[in-house]
Amino acid sequence: MPVAEPVLRFVEDELGRxxxxxARVHADTLQAxxxxxxxPSNAGQRAHQRAAFELLAPRAAGFADAFCAALRxxxxxxLADGRGADEAAATPVRAIGTLELVDESRVEVDIEISRAxxxxxxxxxxxxxxxxxxxxxLAGLRHVRADSLPLRPHVYAAALWDAACALTTExxxxxxxxxMASPALAAELRLAWAQASARLDAQGxxxxxxxxxxxxxGRGPDALRGPPAAPPASAPFQALLAEVAALAPMATPSAAxxxxxxxxxxxxxxxxxxxxxxxxxxxxxxxxxxxxDSLGEDLHAAIAALQPPLLRLVRVDDGMxxxxxxxxxxxxxxxxxxxxxxxxxxxxxxxxxxxxxxLVAGLGALDLPxxxxxxxxxxxxxxxxxxxxxxxxxxxxxxLDQLARLERRDSVQLEAAARMGExxxxxxxxxxxxxxxxxxxxxxIAQAEVDHGLGDPAxxxxxxxxxxxxxxxxxxxxxxxxxxxxxxxxxxxxxLRAGMGAIGLAEPERQAVFDALLAVHTDQPGAxxxxxxxxxxxxxxxxxAPAGGFADSLIDLGSLDTVPAxxxxxxxxxxxxxxxxxAVGQSAQIFIDGRWARVQLLWRSARGLYLLLAExxxxxxxxxxxxxxxxxxxARLVRPAVAGSLxxxxxxxxxTQLSLQ
Length: 661
Hints:
Blueprint: H1 5-16, H2 18-38, H3 43-56, H4 60-82, H5 85-89, E1 101-102, H6 104-123, H7 125-138, H8 153-167, H9 171-202, H10 234-251, H11 255-263, H12 272-290, H13 297-304, H14 307-316, H15 327-341, H16 347-365, H17 371-395, H18 397-424, H19 431-452, H20 457-472, H21 479-503, H22 507-521, H23 527-539, E2 587-592, E3 595-604, E4 610-615, E5 620-625, H24 626-634, E6 638-640, H25 646-660
Parallel strand pairs: 1-5
Antiparallel strand pairs: 2-3, 2-6, 3-4, 4-5
C-alpha cells in the first residue's frame, strides 16, 4: 500500500520522540534487572542478569543511540515495502545470484524477536488498535488497516534486539537484555501510543472504523469459523441462486415483463427466466468483485472485462453454477492470484496482465465462449508465470551452484566424520581435539574433496595433517623426541591454520584447539585429565556430525517457549498440526530478520537440505537450510501468502448479505 504523506509526517514525529522513549526503557530495564537478580532463580540466570545490569547501567546514551538508529532503519524498511515495488527496487539489494545462507542460529534469533513482539502487542493491544484507527484515517482509508502504521510491534522488537547487539557480542547477554527490556518497552509504548492517539484526536482527525461483521439471525460467532467439513462446491452457488430467485420479482421492471420472461424460451432451449436468474447472480458477483478493496485498479479492470462473455455463457451453461471448478471461476481466481503474488507496480504483475488483457478481449469477441476457451486463457497465464519463475531461477544460477556444492560437501563430511571416528576409536586425546577432528576438520577434508576431487593432493594432505597431529600427541619425552616435534610443529600448525581458514572456523574455536595442543606439547597440568576424558569418549559409539555443518546454536532451544499462535492473525491450525510443506514455486510469508517478508520457493536441493527463496521485491534471494525453515514453521512463523479464492470469499460475503436482507 502506498504511504500517504500525512502518515510519513506522523512517523517522523514519533521517531523524534524515540530518544525519550529509549531513556525511559533503559531506566525501567535496569529496575527490572535489579529485581530479577534478587528473585529466586538458578545461579546461571542470576549471573547473566548481574552481567546485563553492569553492562547496561553506564551506557544509557549508547543504548538510546543504538535503539533510535535501529528503529529508524527498520521503519525505513517498512516504508520502502509500503511504497511499492518500483521504489523498493530502486534501493540497493542483494543480487539474485548471490548467496545469503540462513541457518538455525539466525532463525532462533527471529523466534526470540517474535516473542518480544508478542509481549509488546499483548501489553499495549488496546492502545495499538486505537492508534491504527487514526493512522488509517491519515492514510485516507475508510476502514482500519493494520499496515497503515509502520511503527508496529515487530519493528520495535527488532530495534531492541539491534540495540542489544550493539552493546555486546555475548549471545546470552543479548537474550537477557531483549527479554528483560521487552515488558518495559511494552509499558512505555502503551503510554506513547495513547498519547499519539490523543494528539491526532486533538487535531480534529476522525478515526477510521473497524469492519463489523453482522451475522444473520440465529447464527452465533461460531459461524465465522465455518463448518467443520467443507460443503460440496456447488452448495454456495445453489444457495445464492435460490436467494436471487426469491428476490427476482423485486428486480424485474414490471409484473408484466416478469410474466413474459417466465414464458419465453431462450437460446438453446433454456428458459429465459432461468437464464436471467443465473445472469443476475453472476452480475451480482462481479459487482462484489469490483467492491473488493484487496484488488488494485488493474485487476479490477481485468476481471470486469470478463463480465460480458461470462454473462452470455451463464445464460446457456448452468454448469457454471455447479461448482468452483468451472473454468470461468478458475480464470477469475487466476487473475486475482496475480495480485496476491505480485504487489502493485511489480514488473511481473504488469507482464502477466499484459498477457491476460488481449486474451480476455478475445473471449469478449466470441459470440459464445466455451469452457475450452476459458481453459486456454488459464493455461496461458500459468505458462507466463512459469516463464517468469524460470527467469528468476536462471538469474539465481550462481546461488544454486553454491548450494549444490554445500549439500555435496555435507554428504562427504558425514562420510569423512565416520571414517575419522573409526581412526580415533583407539586413540587417547583431549576431547577438544577429538571434537575438532570429527567436526570442523572433517569439513575441511570434505571441502577439499568437493573443490578438487577425491584423489587430489589437497585431500591427501588434509588426512596427513590428522596423522601428524596424532603423532605429535605421542612423541617420546626424551631430547630426540622433543627435537623432532620442534622441527615438525611449524608445518603442522600452518596446515591447521590453512584448513581452519578454508572453512571460516570461528576464532574462539581455533584458539581452543591450539590451547589444547599447547597443553599436551608442554605437559601442562590438565592435559592428562583431558586425555583420559578423550579416551573415555573413544569408548562411546561415534555419532557423525550433523549434515548442516554450522556453528553451535545461538540460543538454547530448551529455554524457548512456544510462540503464541495469536502472533499470526487468522491461524486456525491446532497447535500440534504438522506444518504444511512449501512446494517449489509457492509463496509464503516468513518472519525473518525481525520482520515479515514475502518469499517464493525457487528451488529445493536434491536431498532437500537447502532451500532457495526469492524475496520481494524482485532481486533478493535467501538461501535457507531445511532445518531452519522447519523451525520457523514449528514456531508458526510461516503463513500462506495467498489470500485464497476470490470467488469463494465473495460468495461467503454475498451469502451473509442476502441472509440479512
